[in-house]
Amino acid sequence: MRRRWIFLAPLAIGGILLFIAIGGEVVLQLWNWLLPPIFGWRQITFWQALGILALCRILFGGFGGRGFSRSKRMTPELRERFRQRMRERCGFGPSTSESKGQ
Predict the structure, then answer these.
(1) Pair (6, 29) in one structural domain
(2) pLDDT of residue 73
(3) What percent of the chain shows pLDDT beyond 70?
(4) Cα→Cα distances 72→69, 82, 101, Å
């Protein structure tokens, strides 16, 4: 069993590094292809692209595992009440003057 780990550990580390390098290169190419012509922003380096990738992973993707999801813990009734309150706050639901008249 130990012998197996000796061969798998370097492959796993290499795979992770390859995945990070490819992800950084994809972010770099997409940024430099789209954002400077559209918005006039500067081009970025590979290390800046890795920083953006890490930031997006932290803000939007988490760090793997089961993660935290509020919607999975909410009952359908709570979820619908939350949606209704958000609609009212954003101006998509009935206003207070309309609801008073009914």
Answers:
(1) yes
(2) 75
(3) 78
(4) 6, 14, 37
Cα-Cα-Cα-Cα dihedral sign, residues 13, 68, 22, 53: negative
DSSP-derived secondary structure letter, 42: P
Q: Which residues contact residue 70 at a Cβ distance below 8 angstroms, ignoring those fewer than 6 apart? A: none
* Parent domain of 98: 69-102
Give 3-state DSSP helix, strand, coil % of the chain, rounded to 5: 75, 0, 25
Looking at the predicted structure, is the pLDDT value of residue 99 above 90? no
In what helix (H) or strand (E) does residue 37 lie, and over which residues does it extend?
Answer: helix 2-39
Q: Are residues 79 and 57 in the same domain?
A: no
d(CA 58, CA 34): 23
59 with 74, same domain: the answer is no
Query: pLDDT class for 16, splitting at 50, 70, 90?
Result: very high
Q: What does the angle CA 53 – CA 55 – CA 57 come to, to the nearest 5 degrees? A: 70
Same domain, 27 and 64: yes
